[in-house]
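Internal QA ticket QA-208
Title: Verify multi-chain structure generation after dependency bump
Assignee: T.L.

Test input:
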Amino acid sequence: MSDTRTPLSRARGLGSAKEGVHHWWMQRVTAIALIPLVVWFAISLVMLSGADYAVARAWIGSPLVMVLLTLTIVVGLYHGQLGLQVVWEDYTDGALRVFMILFTKFVAVLFGLGAVLAIMRIGFGG
Amino acid sequence: MSVANRPERPLSPHLQVYRLPMLAILSILHRATGIALSVGGLYLATWVMYAASNPRAYALFQSFNVSIVGRIVLGGWLFSAFFHLFNGIRHLFWDAGYGFEIKDAERSGWIVVAAALVATAASWAVGLRLM
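Actual output:
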């Protein structure tokens, strides 16, 4: 099979069907994962709205909720930063675009890690 | 090709005189609710972190959530979640190659709007009853 790409392009690993398709595909994979998670969480949110400290901790710390809530937050934030990346790509460019995309990803990781550690702290007693 | 012989092409519509089609409005709404949900996701993470801290800090955070403004934000979050969820499923069908005809897209769009409104209203009704 002939290959029209230059040796340099191959060496750089910057050919097609890498980052872009991975972004598109992960957006779909996380979307599918979020369908049951969001339904579960929306119902829980309505049931729990206004829950006091003890009730909230008892809920967050129960084994099944720990798993589902961690998934909801981590997968949700991952899906969200993928979407926001496209928003920045659409409306900004240059240095601002790079800055905003990195900022968005850093904030997502910061809050995601914070939430995961918080859930573990509540569940495992801290 | 000379200018005179150029085939007639549609002109770009101007936003001020152009009534956005329903499909365009739903597309914008998908992005808007997506941005809102991203912020909501950070807020959810913050709620969990407050629950892991001391009772006083949590009570302070919850006092906003149970206020009128907090309730409206919560209701808005629920609508955003349901709309983005149902419209996201519509997008997955498009990705699989179904429902691209304008008539089909408009019909599925109205179904999404109706389902989101019903789900939001139902969760509000249950939520208010539990208050």
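Spot checks passed. Chain B touches chain A through 38 residues (CB under 8 Å).
Status: verified.
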